[in-house]
Amino acid sequence: MKRMKWNALVLIWSLLIVSCAAPERVIYFQDLQQGMQEDIEQSYEIKIRKDDLLGITVSARNSEMAIPFNLPATAYTMEIKSSTSSAQLGYQVDVDGYINFPQLGRIHVEGMTRKELASWITGQLEQKNLLQDPVVTVTFQNFKVSVLGEVKNPRVINVKSDRITVLEALAEAGDLNIQAKRDRVAVIREAEGKRTVHYLDLRSSDLLQSPYYYLQQNDVVYVEPNNARTIQARSTQVTSVGTWVSVFSSIMSVATLIVTLLR
Questions:
Q1: In this predicted model, what pLDDT tens digit does every residue of 33-43 receive, in sequence order?
Q2: Could you give the maximum distance between any two Cα atoms of the chain, in Å?
Q3: Quick one: residue 149, left, alpha or beta (phi over 0 = left, psi -120 to 50 = alpha)?
Q4: Which residue among 58, 175, 183, 209 has the highest number of C-beta atoms inside a 10 angstrom radius?
Q5: Which of 235, 226, 225, 177 lies closest to 8 in space, CA to CA?
Q6: What is the pTM of this model?
Q7: Cβ-proximal residues to 56 (8 Å cutoff; 6+ apart), any chain
C-alpha cells in the first residue's frame, strides 16, 4: 500500500512539472517573428577529413580511356531483399590526409571540399593530357551522424548529400520525446585531433547561426532527459528494487517454514 501511494505521488509530481513548464520548455524557436529574415553566414559545405571514404568517378567522351581512372565495382547481397547489387569501391583518406589516385599518385585531399577535389583532378587530367574533356564526380561514401538520448528512434543516419542540419537529424530520429530538454541538446564533434561538446538551445533562433547547426562527419547528437524523466526513472528503479526485496523476503519465509516443518 505504501509503495502504491509513493508511485502515485511521484506520478502526480511528474505531471505537475511537465504541465507547468510545457509551453516554455517544449516549443521550438520561441523568439521567431513572422517575416523575420537572416543572412546565412556559415557554410554547410563539409571538408574532407582523415578516414573519409571517397567515391571518385571519372568519365570522358571516350569511355574506354576513362576506365583506368575508376575503381572496379564490388558486388554485395541484400539479405532483406535477397537481391544482388553493386557499389563502387572508395578511396580511404589515410592518417596523413592523402589518397592514392591512378596515374596521379599520392594526393593530399584533407581540407578540400568534394567540389575542390573534383576540380583539381579534372585540371590534372587535362594538364597531363591523360584525358580529353574529363568529368570528375566526388562523393562521400561514409558520411554519417548518430542521434541518441530522448528521441523516439535513436539511430545512426547515413547522409546521402553534403548537408544535414541538427533539426533534420532529429527529424530522422522521430523528433524529441516530451521528456527531452529542448535547451540542452549536445553535439559531440571530433576534428583536428580534438573532441568538443557544444550545447544547443532549440528554443532560441540563435541555433540557426550556430556553427553546430550544420552537422559534420561522425557527429553525435545527444538529447538530455528533463527532471520529470529522471524522477520517473528513479521511481521505476525504486519500485524494481522493492519488488525484488519482496520476492526475496517471500522466498526466505517459505524456506524458513520448510525448515521448521522438517524438524
A1: 666 666 666 66
A2: 101
A3: left
A4: 58
A5: 235
A6: 0.69
A7: 70, 71, 90, 91, 101, 117, 118, 121, 136, 137, 138
Mean pLDDT of 147-169: 94
CA-CA distances (angstroms) from residue 250 to 142, 244, 257, 260, 261? Answer: 55, 10, 11, 15, 17
Q: Cell 522438517, residue?
A: 262
- Strand intervals (E) in the chain: 53-59, 73-78, 83-88, 91-92, 98-101, 105-108, 135-140, 144-149, 155-158, 180-191, 194-200, 220-225
- In the structure grid, which three cell numbers stand for residue 39, read together? 543572412
Rounded to whole angstroms, the Cα distance separating 173 from 151 reads 6
Contact between 220 and 146 under an 8 Å Cβ cutoff? The reply is yes
> Is 113 strand, coil or helix?
coil
Residue 156 pLDDT more than 70? yes
Beta partners for residue 91, in sequence order: 54
Cell of 207: 541555433
pLDDT confidence tier of residue 24, bands split at 50, 70 and 90: low
